[in-house]
Structure formats: C-alpha cells, structure tokens
Amino acid sequence: MSNPTPPVGPGLPETQTMVSDTVTAPAPHRQGKHKQAKGGKPASLWTDAWYDLRRRPMFILSVVIILILLVMSFWPQLFTSVDPFNARTCDLSTARQGPSAGHLFGRDNLGCDVYARTIYGARNSIVIGVLTTIITTLVGGLFGIVAGYKSGLVDSVSSRLTEVFFAIPPILGALLIAATFRGRANSILLVIIALAVLGWPMTYRIMRAAVITAKSQDFVVAARALGAGAGRIMFRHLLPNSVAPVIVVATINLGGFIAAEAALSFLGVGVLSPDISWGLMIADARDRFLEAPLPLIFPAVFLCVTVLAFIMMGDAVRDALDPKLR
C-alpha cells in the first residue's frame, strides 16, 4: 500500500531539505508543471513559482510598471528637464493653465509644472513605501519566528502586545503620531516611523502562523534529534520554509503604505513642502478642483496605478507560491 501524500500548507515548499547532508526527502511535484530544475535535481518551491510567474500576464504587467516607477524615482531627469524645486520654473501669471506642448499636464495653483512635480513626487512616495515595508517585515518577521518557535509565555506576551496594536485604527494612529511629533523630525522620516509602528503586527501574525505550521514537520524534528540549537533551527530551517507568505503580504502592504502616506500628506501631517509627494499635490489642488481638475487628477492617477501594480504583483506571487490556489 502506498503512503498517503503529505499535506503541503501555504507558504511551505514541496521539497524540504533534511538537516543531514546525505539524506533528502523529495516531495511530489505539481502535476503538469515544471518537473525538474537544471541538472536533474527536483524543482524547489521558488523555481516552480518563478516558472509559473513568467507565464502570468498580470505579473509581467505589474513588474514593468514598477520598474518604470523605480527608474522615475531615482532618475527623474530622464523624464523631464524641468526642476520643480527651482522657484524660477513657476510663474503665477500662468497658474492653472491647461496642458500645452511645454507642459504636458498643465500648471498648478502656483504656476508650477504639474508633470515635473508628478515625476519628482514618485521618489518620496515610493521610498516611504519601500522603507516602511522593509522595517515592518524585519521587525514583524523576527518577533513572529521567535514567538512561533518558542511558544509558551513568549508567544502569549507577544500575541497580547500585537492585539493592542491591532485595536488602534492604522490611519488614526499614524495621524496621531505624525501630528504629535510634527516639526521635531524630518517629515519623511516621521511618516515612515508612524506607519512602521502600526504596520508590523500583520507581518508578525503571518510569520508566527507559518512557523507554527512548519515546526511540526519532520525536518525540524530531525534537526532537534541531531542537536541543532534554537537559533540554527529558526534561521536555517524554519525561516526559509516560512518566508513565502510573508513576502506576499509585504508586497501587498507596500502598495498600502504608499496609499497611507498619500492620506497623511493629504491631511497635512505627512510629507511637507518643499518636499513633493503625490498626496501633497492632491491636497494642494483640492481647493481649485472644479476650476482646474488636472493638477489633482494626474497625481491621483499615478498613485492609483502604483498601488494597483504592487497589489497585482502580490496577488500573482501569492497564487504562484500557494499550491491550493493553483
């Protein structure tokens, strides 16, 4: 009688490497997909996921959009020759003028070029989203893997602590932090801290749940039997087998943090002038929206496309990594 196929949970690889250097327990491959990697070795979760992602139009489209946005953020001079930080490029006599050959998106309430400000505004919005995501992923992932592995008192205390943070509405809490310390630190740094303080518990829960599922697997039992310490088990064996769902959540959260920064800037406690962000541009243009809608519409469109691109990429990665969604 053949042995039943072991269950494969979301975020766990189908082929798990035992701690022994000579023993490997290959798991069944996904039927009809990439069977083996180069060299005849069984395909890993990441190899199989990359094979699947390359065939998803939604993933390809989102990656193209994100790459364009990243180039726009770090090399805005490639897209416009106008420097929006130079006051001489603004002319009050041309305020709220419509699009023209020299000003594709028209001019805003101060006579500044909307296209140039939109291009330069991408940098702060994306940098805030990326740095906040990195901080929340590292902090939440570290706490989550320790709590999930240790269990007991450590797990109970950390879980109660995260519940306190979950009880605070994210935008309201970030608004309170940013407003309280406004003027005492750089506005961009303050937004990152405010969003990170309230954003790490979600990553903590995802990592903790993945570790609790993975630590009952045979490769962890074998590692303990061979005398591996807690640190080696957590970071050598559990982390690689639990990080997949965290990557998915981090990708989706990145778009959410960009939107949250725009909300804080719109409310006047996020990025402040003379810095530029899409949320700040929307806030500046709202009072004259009926008279001149384009200075608000263009940064809003860029913001929506950016958030949608990261969410689309996160959904595609989730579908590729989770066998139950295939």
From TrEMBL:
It is found in: Cell membrane. Residues 122-314 form the ABC transmembrane type-1 domain. PROSITE patterns: ABC_TM1. The lineage of its organism: Bacteria, Bacillati, Actinomycetota, Actinomycetes, Streptosporangiales. GO terms for cellular component: plasma membrane. CDD domains: TM_PBP2 (cd06261). It comes from Nonomuraea fuscirosea. This is Peptide/nickel transport system permease protein/oligopeptide transport system permease protein. GO terms for biological process: transmembrane transport. Keywords: Cell membrane, Membrane, Transmembrane, Transmembrane helix, Transport.
